[in-house]
Specification:
The structure holds three protein chains of three kinds.
Chain A: H1 2-28, H2 33-38, H3 47-57, H4 63-75, H5 89-124, H6 129-143, H7 146-160, H8 177-210, H9 214-221, H10 226-264, H11 269-279, H12 282-310, H13 312-315
Chain B: H1 3-12, H2 14-36, H3 69-105, H4 107-121, H5 125-136, H6 140-150, H7 152-168, H8 170-178, H9 182-218, H10 230-235, H11 240-245, H12 247-275
Chain C: E1 4-15, E2 23-34, E3 38-42, H1 49-57, E4 65-74, E5 77-78, H2 84-90, E6 95-98, H3 102-105, H4 112-123, H5 128-141, H6 147-151, H7 160-171, E7 178-182, H8 190-207, E8 210-215, H9 218-224, E9 227-232, E10 235-241, H10 242-247, H11 252-259, H12 299-303, E11 309-311, E12 314-316
Parallel strand pairs in C: 3-8, 3-9, 6-7, 7-8
Antiparallel strand pairs in C: 1-2, 1-4, 4-5, 9-10, 10-12, 11-12
Helix pairs in contact in C: 4-5, 4-7, 5-7, 7-8
Classes of the chains: A mainly alpha, B mainly alpha, C alpha/beta.
Amino acid sequence: MARYLYERILSALLTMFFVTAIIYLILSLIQGSALTVMGGSGSEMSAAEYEAARRALGLDLPVWLRYAHWLRDVLRGDLGSSYRYGVPVGEVIAQRFGSSALLVGTAILFTLLLGLPVGVMAAYKPGSVWDRLSSFFALAGFSAPRFITCIACIYVFSFKLRLAPPMGMHNAGNASLLDLIHHLIMPSAIITFGAMGYMIKQTRGACLEVFQEDYLKTARAKGLSEVEVIFKHGLRTALAPILTQMMVQVPEIVGSAAIVEKIFGWPGIGSLMLDAIRNRDTPLIMGVTLVIASVVLVANILLDLAYGLLDPRVRYR
Amino acid sequence: MNHRGFWNKFRQSRGAMIGLCFLVAEALAVYLLPAIFHMDPVSSDVQAGFNAAPSAAHLLGTDGAARDLLARTLCGGRVSLLVGVAAPLISVSIGLPLGLAAGYYRGVVEMVVMRLSDVFMSFPDILLSLILVSVIGPSLGSLIGVIGVMGWTSIARLVYANVLSIREKEYINNALSIGRNDFEILSHEILPGVLSPVFVSLSFLSGNAVLQESGLSFLGAGIRPPQASWGGIIFAAQDLSVLTRMPWIWAPSGILIVLTVVAFQFVGQGLRDTLDPKMTV
Amino acid sequence: MPETLLEVRNLTVNLKLGNRQDVTAVDGVSFSLKRGETLGIVGESGCGKTLTASAVIGLLPPYTGYIAGGEILFEGEDLTKKTARQMRAVRGAKISMIFQDPMSSLNPVYRIGTQMREALRVHRDVTAKEAREISAEMLRKVGIPLPETRLREYPHQLSGGQRQRVMIAMSLLSNPSLLIADEPTSSLDVTIQAQILDLIRALRDEMGMSVMLITHDMGVVAGNADKVMVMYAGKVVEYGTVEEIFTNPLHPYTQRLIGSIPRLDMDVEYLSTIEGMVPPLGQMPKGCRFCARCPLHTGACQEQPPPPFRIGEHVTFCRRANPDFRPPP
């Protein structure tokens, strides 16, 4: 198990290296981006000033060397300064990370809490009304783009019904937890709605297989109730493969959170990333890339560990 | 299964037929209607006003630049359908050879391809596409290219998994022992076995491409005005007053996006049920 | 004379098959079982032997199988009239069941001890410590060495034979009066098979319970059952004590099943096999169901189901068994 974990962490670090390198390379193709962002249009500078500015930012060096420098600085804990805001990237991200974690964490929690039981019930009686209803719901979840769900929800729930606020994390001057939850409900529900379809589908598939197994008959033969049979023996055993499938979904959830943050004006790193891309703010893009890639890979390692905990056959290998 | 048998079985699937009919009707509508009625999606009708509500002259109203929204919605459909058809073809042309090679040769090729797909899969699609499009510059071509390239991983993994399971079977060994070369084995023994799952996943990829395109255009990184696209039309709803007071601007495009994606999903499910219900795509 | 524990009368089990009409998979089966006795139910796969046993313990496949008629009198009560909740109190407590494949009949993600404790706690109020002691004692009884260690292990750490012993131990925790063993040895090695069968017989005598032993192998029945019921295509074809069935088999199907037992003490050229296929569910012939594979069949066999022919407790459903029967010229 320890060896396995070690291999996983090593491969995650390698993946992280490639992700950042590829994105750095792509960004380097934007010509003179930093200067355009910082100094307005390049025409206002003389050729000498332009050259000096370029050298100051290290843009005259070849790409691989610049990436190496960036990587070296990252390892020293320095993510550089935002071209746009002129402040350290680390600070900007630190300010915003918590609110994103809250939003995405809530969404993932509810995806699991709702998606698992719904998927189990769908698998319990395939073809039933409940099964059809949940597969319709799942289809709606992954067919509606997040931004359309957001707009429709804001229109209906904020504007027509006035149930939930359409913007931000807090009302001005109100820092209470209740107010935060009130603001959190709609954006996190939208992410949950999108992610749940996949969850239901995976749970249903894994449970359909497990429900054929003899140990469910054994559980029934012991005299356990159907609820115990289905959840304690059925879902519990199916949980490990379901979690593996969740891994594929984590980047997708993070991506859709970015759009939801943007529309709801939620001050997280997703909307920060979208703005950074629009502004071509390379250091900021690289910083957020690093954070997102680490979150995804840490989530994968945690899910791997969970697999080991959930399935003793893996643990004792 | 011959073509007639396939079609007869496919026809039984009600959802798939509804999806297919919807897509065909939609394609005819977005390509023919603007031409027949000489609709103009680009020029402004200042007399009708900006963001005007639906009226006899403008059935779906006008947008913020006083352009006819019916014409823009129809022309926007062309973009979505074009991306939906073209991008998956690019995904397949990248993913199919890579998946075949990884599954057939194993070893280094397998490691490189799988590692690369890990890299792609550990970063949100929408953000990577956004970065790519903003570097290349937004246009219909770059949208198709970027969305197509981003889709390669799912095809490559699907093909890879299928090749592995085909390799297990006896007849590959037999073919080897007769002394056929790699190309013959790949094209005669392996390719036919992976084609039907690829065919099925094309339809799912189309739905996904429509989603991606609308998302990028909505974020202002896709099709740029004055050219019309559904995501671009909904872009206007980023203004809260448009969102709350002028639903006619964004609702039709939004509904069409969802319906188009659902239609592609239905067709994909129908294809899967027709070719092999046990297939996991 | 020991009292009757289980009396099944005219049991009929139907299966729902999607949109098509329900089919009858077990058709009018009757038998009885005394305390301490073993009944062997023999037949090919799909003959309804497992469904018959599942009906007794109330474990028909959910949503597809249901009892369409008949009575199951267990300790004088009709189990077909019990609610699902009442049946749960019977299952695992008075009637237990073990299955064919011990590799998949234990849940891979729970420790042996956890699974045994669960079986105990459904029916009895015991502390964790008591549960551990009772379980260890039962494991010792079924011949598992170092039971305390085994309780902390997972199923995949045990061999197939050991797992089947664990299954038996688990099913006997509440001291049931009936154990249903569905092909308990079919997936085990031959040497282990004999050990498991001996164990079941020894435990039956020790605990005074009855056993329903379901198998496709006449050889298994020979040494382990008191009574034998042979089933074919959902119907009983022959029923009697083990001595009568083996010394005087009346039904051609039974004769062939016995003929297909490999024997070491007899030098035979080849084992007899039974030609042909079982008719599919829902397409049963109106006459005798074995007709198409029977070398002795006559016109009457095709037209009408055979009447029962009895010699004492021995019953068979074959016209040929009746010495007065004359085939029409």
